[in-house]
């Protein structure tokens, strides 16, 4: 203040007016309140910020659960008195990966909270550097002036200090626990990988004594059933809590399938046409059983690393469902053999669940493997040629017998892990092959049901040539079933991950030709999407019951929509394929430029036909089902493609015409706006006759015909030719052009018959 006054004196000496400057150096009560308001804002921000940390309690609960799961995993992996189960080791690996991901997410959230809290503390510390606030809190006179504010601020400060202290402590504690979990997870991952490698290596070595040697009592101790089940249930529970699999997608897919089949059957039943579905042997009006078979047949592919207990439970339920399914579909002898297979499937599961000593398990497994070999040979001898056509089941049957033989020798020579792997893989592969084969046939029948129900709803004939469609669908479902079976089979053998990584390494490796870089994966993805788009555009019409052989006039609008849909699928598929494959757009542009040069040189006709096809689809000059005349060709439009269109002549010939030729010629479309056609009949009759009677007679015959369009009055004209005869010209309209010739013939015959009764001679 003294320096301020000295400055003021010096300025006065110079004769300057400094009254404004002197006033600005004086702080008012409003200035103090403004700075105090900043303090209140900062203090009030603390509970708001801390209250926004809503994930702290869930994180604490998750960490408690994670720590329990890690403790259980550690105790399982550290067990030395029990051989590790290969499937459970794979499941442990998956569970640890999920735990690592969850803990990293928790640590990220905690770091974000700590960052917000640190920023808040920095803001509080910056308040201490404010000179005005220092004056407010140090000058007694000012403290007296703001006594009420200081009292309230004191209360808020106590709450603020408590919140900051407890929240900081909580975040630091949770960060320490999360970091500790991540360290433990890394250690357990290393231990799991080591045990997986050890299992793979030891499996080919002598793990146990030869079966004929004396018993090692110490290594032959049994594990209590309750203890074993409890451990399996606990680890399975943690697996389903943590894993982010597609089980909900599987349930949703099966639910959609159930209602799809159910509503198609109901729509056919409501129209009283259930007799058209007599040939269906797998799908039924209430497809509960087949839906559950689908659910449990596909469950392993949605959980490749699921716990052994879960996979065994799925196989158990699937075997029971198939037994119920086969009860009325197989003859008694074949069903009896199926029941034997179910016993051979379930026996090892119960052996493991009961916690029997390894020595007893080995002897029982020896009995089961030798029985499986004998069983496979017996079933092969009694199968008929029709059953042997199922190649997937037949091939898997040979694998089952071969693996049983290998398991027998592995068991005899102390390779107990290999014994379990080969026997369980052989049995489950045969079960999966049977269930997936049934599932493939079910999907084909469900698609055929969709086609028939759609045709019945639209009033089309339920019979059509469905064999080409079914052949294509069988090929697709067969490929899908084989791929699913192969993935499950290689997973059971613990070679899927290695194969997958090797294939992905080949597919994702960048390769360069000149300046063009690509990957095999991008090319495969590009071709795959193009193939799927082409498949969908080819079969989408069949899905809605349109086989292309029906000439119903009220179906033309829908067929036009299907044409547009097919075009969109093709173009959209190409664009998605380019985007998903990662192929460089600039290189594709160069290729398209080169293609443009090629078009200019020699591909004009192809491009012209392609563009003309798109114009025909959207312009609707002609539509599928229209009766048209092009030059000297007449027929019904069967198909409009992107390059050419097909006419079906009255003689049954299919006339293929390039789209460019269609647009460049005159088109006579008999059914563009309606399906009507004028028909003319000419008769020569002898005189004498009553003209009024003849006209009324002909008119009556025409009006009574169901295919005659009554709204347009028939025209009957009588023209004398000579004294002996006259010509009668008859014109009337038909509702349906496809029945015009039949209608002309019927009316002609009725006129002849009526004239004969009236003694009118037709020359």
From TrEMBL:
Coiled coil feature spans: 96-130
InterPro entries: LSM_dom_sf, MscS-like_channel, MscS_beta-dom_sf, MscS_channel_2nd, MscS_channel_C_sf, MscS_channel_TM-2
Transmembrane segments: 248-265, 277-302, 308-327, 334-354, 360-380, 392-414, 426-449, 476-496, 516-536, 563-585, 591-618
Entry superkingdom: Bacteria
Example of a GO MF term: mechanosensitive monoatomic ion channel activity
Membrane topology designation: Multi-pass membrane protein
Keyword list, A-Z: Cell membrane, Coiled coil, Membrane, Transmembrane, Transmembrane helix
Domain Mechanosensitive ion channel MscS stretches: 605-671
Pfam families xrefs: MS_channel_2nd
A cellular component term, taken from the record's GO annotations: plasma membrane
Compartment list: Cell membrane
Family statement drawn from the similarity comment of this UniProt entry: Belongs to the MscS (TC 1.A.23) family.
The protein's name in its UniProt record: Mechanosensitive ion channel protein
Organism: Pedobacter ginsenosidimutans
Lineage of the organism: Bacteria, Pseudomonadati, Bacteroidota, Sphingobacteriia, Sphingobacteriales
């Amino acid at each position: 203040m003294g320096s301020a006054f000295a400055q003021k004196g010096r300025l006065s000496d110079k004769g300057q007016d400094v009254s404004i400057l002197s006033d600005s150096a004086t702080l008012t009560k409003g200035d103090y309140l403004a700075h105090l308001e900043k303090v209140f804002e900062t203090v009030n921000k603390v509970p708001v910020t801390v209250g926004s940390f809503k994930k702290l309690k869930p994180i604490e609960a998750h960490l408690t659960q994670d720590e329990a799961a890690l403790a259980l995993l550690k105790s399982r992996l550290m067990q030395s008195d029990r051989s590790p189960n290969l499937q459970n080791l794979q499941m442990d690996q998956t569970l640890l990966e999920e735990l690592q991901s969850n803990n990293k997410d928790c640590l990220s959230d905690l770091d974000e909270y700590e960052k917000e809290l640190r920023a808040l503390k920095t803001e509080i510390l910056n308040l201490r550097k404010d000179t005005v606030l220092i004056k407010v809190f140090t000058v007694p006179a000012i403290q007296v002036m703001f006594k009420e504010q200081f009292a309230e601020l004191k209360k808020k400060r106590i709450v603020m200090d408590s919140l900051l202290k407890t929240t900081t402590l909580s975040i630091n504690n949770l960060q320490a626990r999360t970091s500790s979990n991540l360290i433990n997870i890394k250690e357990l991952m290393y231990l799991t990988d080591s045990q997986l490698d050890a299992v793979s290596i030891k499996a080919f070595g002598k793990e146990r004594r030869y079966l004929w040697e004396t018993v090692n009592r110490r290594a032959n101790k049994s594990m209590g059933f309750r203890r074993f089940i409890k451990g399996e249930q606990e680890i399975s529970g943690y697996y389903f809590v943590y894993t982010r699999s597609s089980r909900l997608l599987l349930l949703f897919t099966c639910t959609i399938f159930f209602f799809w089949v159910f509503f198609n059957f109901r729509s056919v039943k409501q129209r009283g046409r259930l007799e058209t579905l007599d040939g269906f042997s797998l799908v039924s009006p209430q497809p509960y059983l087949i839906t559950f078979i689908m659910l449990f047949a596909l469950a392993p592919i949605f959980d490749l690393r699921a716990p052994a207990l879960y996979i065994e439970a799925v196989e158990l339920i699937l075997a029971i469902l198939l037994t119920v399914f086969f009860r009325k579909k197989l003859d008694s002898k074949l069903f009896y053999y199926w029941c034997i297979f179910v016993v051979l499937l379930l026996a090892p599961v119960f052996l493991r669940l009961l916690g029997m000593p390894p020595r007893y398990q080995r002897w029982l497994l020896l009995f089961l493997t030798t029985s499986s070999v004998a069983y496979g040979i017996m079933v092969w001898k009694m199968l008929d040629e029709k059953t042997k056509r199922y190649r997937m089941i037949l091939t898997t049957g040979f694998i089952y017998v071969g693996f049983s033989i290998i398991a027998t020798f592995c068991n005899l020579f102390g390779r107990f892990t290999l014994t379990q792997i080969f026997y369980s893989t052989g049995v489950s592969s045969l079960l999966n092959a049977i269930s997936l084969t049934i599932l493939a046939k079910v999907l084909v029948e469900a698609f055929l049901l969709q086609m028939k129900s759609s045709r019945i709803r639209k009033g089309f004939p339920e019979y059509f040539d469905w064999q080409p469609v079914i052949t294509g669908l069988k090929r697709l479902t067969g490929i899908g079933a084989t791929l699913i079976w192969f993935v499950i089979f290689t997973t059971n053998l613990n070679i899927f991950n290695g194969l997958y990584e090797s294939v992905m390494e080949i597919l994702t490796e960048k390769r360069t030709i000149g300046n063009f870089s690509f990957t095999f994966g991008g090319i495969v993805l590009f071709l795959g999407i193009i193939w799927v788009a082409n498949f969908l555009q080819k079969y989408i019409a069949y899905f809605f019951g349109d086989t292309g052989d029906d000439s119903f006039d009220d179906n033309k609008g829908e067929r036009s929509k299907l044409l547009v849909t097919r075009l969109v699928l093709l173009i959209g598929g190409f664009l998605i394929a380019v985007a998903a494959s990662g192929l460089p757009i600039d290189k594709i542009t160069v290729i398209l430029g080169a293609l443009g040069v090629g078009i200019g040189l020699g591909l004009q006709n192809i491009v012209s036909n392609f563009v003309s096809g798109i114009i025909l689809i959207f312009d609707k000059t002609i539509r599928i089902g229209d009766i048209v005349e092009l030059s000297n060709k007449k027929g019904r439009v069967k198909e409009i493609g992107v390059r050419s269109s097909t006419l079906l002549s009255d003689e049954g010939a299919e006339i293929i015409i390039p789209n460019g030729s269609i647009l460049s010629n005159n088109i006579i479309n008999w059914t563009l706006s309606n399906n009507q056609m004028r028909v003319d009949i000419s008769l020569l009759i002898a005189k004498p006759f009553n003209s009024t009677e003849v006209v009324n007679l002909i008119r009556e015959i025409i009006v009574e015909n169901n295919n005659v369009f009554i709204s347009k009055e028939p025209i009957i004209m009588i023209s004398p030719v000579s004294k002996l005869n006259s010509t009668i010209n008859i014109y009337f309209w038909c509702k349906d052009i496809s029945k015009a010739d039949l209608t002309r013939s019927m009316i002609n015959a009725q006129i002849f018959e009526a004239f004969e009764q009236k003694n009118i001679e037709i020359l």
